Task: structure prediction
Amino acid sequence: MRAEPQSFDRVLSSMCTEPHPAAREAAERFLATNPGDPGTYQSAAALEDRAVAMLGEIVGLEIDTADAIGTGDDARARGGEPTGYVTSGGTEANVQAVRIARERAASATGRPSVVVPESAHFSFRKAADLLQVDLEVVPTTADHRVDLEAVRAAVDEDTAAVVGVAGSTEYGRVDPIPELGEIAASVDALLHVDAAWGGFALPFTDREWHFGHAAVDTMAIDPHKMGQAAVPAGGLLVRSTDLLDELAVDTPYLESTSQATLTGTRSGAGVASAVAAMEELWPDGYRDQYVRSQHNAEWLADQLEVRGYEVVEPVLPLVAASIPTPLFESLRAEGWRLSRTGDDRRVRFVCMPHVTREMLESFLADLDRLESRAARAVPSPGE
Ligand SMILES: Cc1ncc(COP(=O)(O)O)c(C=O)c1O
Result:
């Protein structure tokens, strides 16, 4: 095989990034392990407990994680039960969260529904399709956050879950999570927060987004995005272990008794790299990275605005800007990896850890050059 992976030099569209060197090394070491069979792959399974404990600390779960992180103990060794697992990514975490909510609502009379903002990731469509639940999509307001009045109007006795996004894929926005928790509670529904992308940046902001801030029941948070772990390393976290029980099936031929995960065989590489990245970076490394990425995003937003493009200001390190389609296509032809929002076809610039100021300067130089070439190609009136 001669193929090489792409370089990150011109990647501005991805929610993933180059793994931290420690995460890469750990992934390679644990390549042939399977935490889905904890009776056989015991060290990978222990690492998963550690990953969940560390993620629990990041997302404000009131469990005794400080000990676990300090001593290397894992939750089970201390008699606790895990409050999550390392998924294949945000999609699996979202599907599983909807599955938990559906199981909880099983005694309801009507077909269960899940209320999601239009800004929610398309993985909720897969979840609804697979799990036979209705998806009630509610609009966002002008600031690209969910319209709370629309959520209030959408929920009823069939609502199994309300979803809030903490770091939306297209605009990096954070929904009002405490208010969504109140609305969910008013109809006895669960609140799921999708922090798959935002979860490693939000701890360094003043946003209210996690289990400690609001009545959150389940959450997606992905080490393989802002967490700088190797793919695949997502995370599903739950407020209490009985929520995971909704997912558990018996595993007769394994030494473990039950399995709550969606996939069977899973990547020990992803688990190990998530632990390695978090041990290296939580909290100071992630804070420094967030500050760098946020500054880059704000700087890029200013630079685009100065050039006359309409810009959606970055709340998290993600800028969206209106760039004409021919210019967008020319930039892509020059090798820039860019993508656009579904509604207004704004170009998204995801300022991930691999996106440096030098890279953005080089992008802007290409933008200016292609823009002036396009301007020269347009005949002036009377020509
Ligand atoms: C907010 C959000 N949720 C879920 C996902 C899906 O994650 P994955 O692609 O890891 O399945 C994404 C992907 O970018 C995302 O941005």
About this structure: The mean pLDDT is 93. Residues 284-373 form a domain with the Aspartate Aminotransferase, domain 1 fold (CATH 3.90.1150.10). The two ends are 54 Å apart (CA to CA). The chain has two domains: 21-281, 284-373.
